[in-house]
């Protein structure tokens, strides 16, 4: 597709800068926009580690100037706080493990931003995500990127067909080393800028401390799931995630001497259940609110590969849409699967694994 009006979301990093450059080179009429996502940008991570700091906005503006495209900063702080930060806190308080990057893509970049872009007459939003996107018979097909290590199809799998129809991911066929080299050739100052890591709205990376500041102390018991023995107390289930091994605050070793892991969180009673790694094995996943990126729901049981975390956690499975939800039976057990995470279904494909659908994990067995 050429000659479109494209709004390039420019975070100030190398990926979004090169994506915008490629959109210009493809003949699109491109306008750059940086999203101001914090009411207090000075409090966010600096040193080229975040994605919405004052420093990042300056880097994005310099890249847009070099590309010769108009550039704006749009204030989405209130929407980001409501749809991403408050959702993150509420999910942890409920004993679930959310993915804020997935929520940001779903609610901010391809809902709030895309809605505004379409209202202003743009045809598409362009981002620096590593994923392949194509239109086949008028339907979008989302696939893994060429760079398996950087693939971001997992955090894009909650997007609807309508949203994907108005999306551009120019980096899908590239590997990160080539993108950095291209940035250097183009004279982009961000060519060597480190990738962002962790959660942008938690500056010091201390998720437990951030949640404690928002939720306060909600003490409860640490219980051995096999024996029912009380092993200690904690200050809130929001300080734990299923599969966690370190920082449990248990002084008594397990009888067999092996590490204990968090098995389940019970926010109402304040109970954190712990046990051996074997008890983390999951063979069935139930998902709610399924999304079908190509607009085609599963028809009957389907052989697929599922992914339950942004990096890793894959297994062959049989998935089926049941009563408005999703049931996934794993052919190989997975460990550390937590309610609140997304389960994404892929169909192996020579052109790059195709995303069949996604859902929010509501239960495991």
From TrEMBL:
InterPro entries (alphabetical) = MnmA-like, MnmA-like_C, MnmA-like_central, MnmA-like_central_sf, Rossmann-like_a/b/a_fold
Q: Which family does it belong to?
A: Belongs to the MnmA/TRMU family.
Describe the task this protein carries out: Catalyzes the 2-thiolation of uridine at the wobble position (U34) of tRNA, leading to the formation of s(2)U34.
For this UniProt entry, the molecular function terms from Gene Ontology, in alphabetical order, are:
ATP binding; tRNA binding; tRNA-uridine 2-sulfurtransferase activity
Domain tRNA-specific 2-thiouridylase MnmA-like central, which positions? Answer: 209-275
* Primary location class: cytoplasm
Q: Which gene encodes it?
A: trmU
List the lineage, top down: Bacteria, Bacillati, Actinomycetota, Actinomycetes, Pseudonocardiales
What's the source species for this entry? Gandjariella thermophila
Q: Where is this site: Interaction with tRNA?
A: 129, 341
- GO CC annotation terms, alphabetical: cytoplasm
Q: Which reaction does it catalyse?
A: S-sulfanyl-L-cysteinyl-[protein] + uridine(34) in tRNA + AH2 + ATP = 2-thiouridine(34) in tRNA + L-cysteinyl-[protein] + A + AMP + diphosphate + H(+)
Q: What is its EC number?
A: 2.8.1.13
Q: Locate the transmembrane regions by residue number.
A: none
The positions annotated for binding ATP are 9-16, 35, 128
Instruction: Report the subcellular localization.
Output: Cytoplasm
Q: Which UniProt keywords apply?
A: ATP-binding, Cytoplasm, Disulfide bond, Nucleotide-binding, RNA-binding, Transferase, tRNA processing, tRNA-binding
Write the protein's name: tRNA-specific 2-thiouridylase MnmA
Record-annotated tRNA-specific 2-thiouridylase MnmA-like C-terminal domain positions: 283-361
